[in-house]
Amino acid sequence: MAKKKGGLSHVYPKDKRAFSLLAKSGAMSKDTLHKLEITDNRIKSYKQAGLIKEVSVPDKHGNSIKTFYELTDKKGKAFCRQECNIKQFISNGNASIHNSKVSEYLADNLSKRELDSIISERELQPFIESRLQEYLDKQEHDHYQELVDALKNNQLSMPDIIYQTEQGTYEAIEVVTDNYGNEEIESKAMTCELLSLKVTFVPT
Q: Of 4, 178, 195, which Cα lies nearest the Cα of 82?
């Protein structure tokens, strides 16, 4: 059977959804992949094709090891560029537990249509520009000026994810770790208020 570019013989919508979410969250557990209708055999195919890799990290209490999947730098990201039209990627660094919580929450709480609408914090510039235009169109000049000032002064602290709900409105998700202080949470909340977004804070 001829292999597609990317190493998979066929690419299904559920593959694209899983890889898109992985690119936009940074890390994913096997349980989350299962919730996205990805079987163990399919995960094995992804690994054999060199698209994902396993990463093991201690849990936040240091009592056990957790295993997550990440995109490989070369083949995995190339696959996402080609099949999912993704240009910006969330990197993990030391944030695998935080990032896997982002993907877990999204898979647990969003519909397929909502999952297909998600925007990561790396992709928000067009969204911000559309909000500015919306405020101008509605003649909400104070709201417009507040957002412009915050942009100029580098005061925006972007949420992890923005998505469009089934009702057509936009909402934000921010996963909060033990390292977050009140000031950081308030900054995220202020940014979401400036962007007219309801935000859900999710503990790890």
A: 4
pTM listed for this prediction:
0.89
Q: By C-alpha distance, which of 132, 119, 126 is closest to 159?
A: 119
Please report, for residues 22, 45, 108, 178, the alpha-carbon distance to residue 105 in angstroms, rounded to integers and kept in the order given.
13, 25, 5, 17
Angle subtended at Cα 14 by Cα 170 and Cα 5, rounded to the nearest 5 degrees: 115
Predicted local distance difference test score (pLDDT) of residue 9: 87
Contact 138, 166 (CB under 8 A): no
Cβ atoms 84, 8 nearer than 8 A: no
Q: What are phi and psi of 163, to 5 degrees?
A: -145, 160
Domains annotated for the chain, with CATH where assigned, are 13-99 (1.10.10), 119-203 (no CATH)
- Give the pLDDT score at 79: 96
